[in-house]
Amino acid sequence: MATLIEISNVTKSYGAQELLKEASIALGDEQKIGFIGRNGAGKSTLLRILLEEETVDSGQVIRHPNLMIGYLRQHDPFEPGESALEFLMRDSGQPEWKCGEVAGEFELKGRFLNGPVKELSGGWQTRVKLASLLLHEPNFLMLDEPTNFLDLRTQLLLEDFLKHYRGACLVVSHDRSFLKAICTQTLELKRGKLTLFNGNVDQYLENQEILKERDARTNATVMAKRRQLETFIAKNKAGANTASQARSKEKQLARLTLTEIEGAESTVNIVIPQTEKRQGTALTCDDLAIGYPDLRVAEKITLEIEHGSRAAIVGDNGQGKTTFLRTIAGSLKALEGDLKWGYHCKIACYAQHVYTSLPDDQTIRDYLEMESAPGTTNQQILNVAGSFLFKEQALDKPIKVLSGGERARLCLAGILLGNYSILILDEPGNHLDVETVEALGDALVKFQGTVIFTSHDRHFMGKVATDVIEVVNGSVKAYEGDYESYLYRVKKEVADGHREQHQESVARQEQKSSKKREKGIGGKIKNARKELSAIERKIAQLDEKKNKINEQFLKATSSQEAQEHHAEMQPLIEEIAELESRWMELYEILEQ
């Protein structure tokens, strides 16, 4: 195995914060490595060093002469009006047949390949970027949180690509299922040191627990021996006949040292205040319709969620998961039907529209104390705050200076400290590291109340969910099976070329519409189809703008900046809703 990159005694600091401390590692051409570490540990900094976008304070980074790095770009590399195929040919310099062949591996066909690439959704644009990576024929891929905001089907497609990729991979992700599926080794950055383990992330974390338990047992034995020696020394050091023995025992005592259990002081342990365990129905939806005044997202929703259940809301992006959560949380009014919570349900909601409106005039400490359940101790607040990267010295920081990601973590910390019987959580793990996501999952499993949540993290979903509710094709209904069976079904659909079947269905619809045109209603159909196509392009453009503004919002460093981005997003949301309403009208015309 050839070494592609060798990091030798590298040190990198920002002010007083030492992210890398004489770190060393060799990365070979056949390795697929999951890169983990706490938020703020320095993972992104190391990636920038490998990309030669950052310099090191000391040490060396030695690159093989044949090293070709492929990095999944987060910025928009597309030119106005160009198709995915045109972009692939321009970016890679490869012929059309080669670009089409590689694009096919990501199901980029038809309008997805030949239509304007800027009008594709973020998930499809990610597929185009991955195809571009492959066309450059890199031998070392670096991916930084590649699954964020990708729906399950696109995640599975990316996973399949990486499994069969012949080069080396370094993947930063908080999604344990994704890392476990593709990575055979685990690299952890902790306290400035790099540790490479020959096993997947589950095996690595399990091994860490075994080592901690072993070190704890060793320390217990050492402490017992210490007490024994101290007792002997105290009894015999003053005696004329035993003083020499006592001095010998003192030397033995000096040689006894405790093993430092790394990370023990920073172990994440989230404890949610317990609510009264209740029986019966927590939520009832009867013939419910959800959406906006001019756009129905789903209708005829009839379901029940029982007290104590942990219901996972699943479905592809854009189907309406967040709309459903906002409706049951009360921030979006139902269009029709009945929605009823059980008696004395106390509901907390974690979602983007919630953490964008935190009180700017309070400090982190003020907010957490205000949100905490009665009887919560100061130490409990400090523990939960620390779990979400708010150290004690930072608790007096004003909320108005927090970034979007910090606000999200603060909001979630406040909810978990409160005394709620119902938790509604929309993507709670997006701003957390592997260890904190795992701790959150453990806490939710122990919680006696009801949890209704959605997440793109398969490990988290499988760990927490007791029930599955699927949002698909304008309906919201209980899924007959657990999360693992839902995951199996989606995997099978992807493996069987589910999207090709969908395209065949579209082709049949085209034929059906063609027959209608032959019967004398072609003018109406033709105009409707033309307008429908224009609306789809416009929605894609607006959605792209909205996603970019949302990214800027999450990176905002001040309250004023965050509010400006939020205000900028609102007219886009309203315009998209209007266009989607018209899209539904046209779709009904074509279905007649």
From TrEMBL:
GO molecular function per UniProt: ATP binding; ATP hydrolysis activity; DNA binding
InterPro entries: AAA+_ATPase, ABC_tran_C, ABC_tran_Xtn, ABC_transporter-like_ATP-bd, ABC_transporter-like_CS, ABCF_ATPase, P-loop_NTPase
PROSITE patterns with a match to the protein in the record: ABC_TRANSPORTER_1, ABC_TRANSPORTER_2
Keywords carried by this UniProt record: ATP-binding, Nucleotide-binding
CDD domains (alphabetical): ABCF_EF-3 (cd03221)
Composition bias type Basic and acidic residues, residue spans: 498-513
ABC transporter domain boundaries: 5-223, 283-498
ATP-binding as UniProt keyword: yes
Stretches for region Disordered: 498-523
SMART domains for this protein: AAA
Residues that span the membrane, as ranges: none
Protein name: Putative ABC transporter ATP-binding protein YheS
Gene that produces this protein: yheS
